[in-house]
Design brief:
Belongs to the PTH family. The protein is of the alpha/beta class and 203 residues long.
């Protein structure tokens, strides 16, 4: 558990992956954010540890380290997706990270499977996790790394679709695509939003 009194300067990045906790949800499309964060944790070379600040309400698994030469806190909230905002706000306040250095990695229905798109600000497009984060931060100008999961087939409900595992065909390429999304996060931190968009929006 991290200490209650720890503070860092505003050169820190907070990178949050969205998902639902527990083995039941591990392979779900909705957990793409967690998958990308696991890859980034491997690159940092550490393991996630519980961060539970009673003062800040930051219930998450976190890992501090360096990515792309930048100081970073990687985080996976321990709440369910639609309550992600509380832990994100808690971590933002605990580490004193300005909102423009908060990066949220999440699944995106309106992007083809495996495609990566980066943006700053905007709406939530019906994504309950983003809605919760925006409400809790009181600001929508955080950065987003969006991992495409595609649209549900036929008349399948979108909520049901994202709570299903990736298909067998998708799983064949999933590892490569998640690694590419992790690359995009590193590019965002190291090179900035415009350069990362130029590099990853062509794919």
């Amino acid at each position: 558990m991290c200490g209650e009194g720890v503070r860092v300067s505003a050169d820190m990045w907070l990178v949050v992956g969205l998902g639902n906790p527990g083995p039941k949800y591990e392979g779900n499309r909705h957990n793409a954010g967690f998958m990308v964060l696991d890859v980034l944790a491997g690159r940092v070379g550490g393991a996630f540890k519980a961060h539970r600040s009673k003062l800040f309400g930051s219930r998450s698994d976190v890992l501090e380290g360096r990515l792309a030469g930048e100081r970073v806190v990687l985080a996976k909230p321990r709440s369910f997706m639609n309550e992600s905002g509380g832990p994100v706000r808690g971590l933002r306040d605990f580490y004193k990270v300005p909102v423009e250095r908060v990066v949220v990695v999440h699944d995106e229905l309106d992007i083809p499977f495996g495609a990566v798109r980066l943006k700053k600000g905007g709406g939530d497009n019906g994504h309950n996790g983003l809605r919760s984060v925006t409400r809790s931060l009181g600001d929508r100008e955080y950065l987003r790394v969006r991992f495409g999961v595609g649209r549900p087939p036929g008349r399948m409900d979108a909520a049901s679709f994202v709570l299903r595992d990736f298909s067998a065909a998708e799983r064949r390429d999933l590892g490569v695509e998640v690694e590419r999304a992790a690359d995009a996060v590193e590019a965002l931190l190291g090179d900035g939003l415009a350069a990362a968009q130029n590099a990853y929006h062509s794919g």
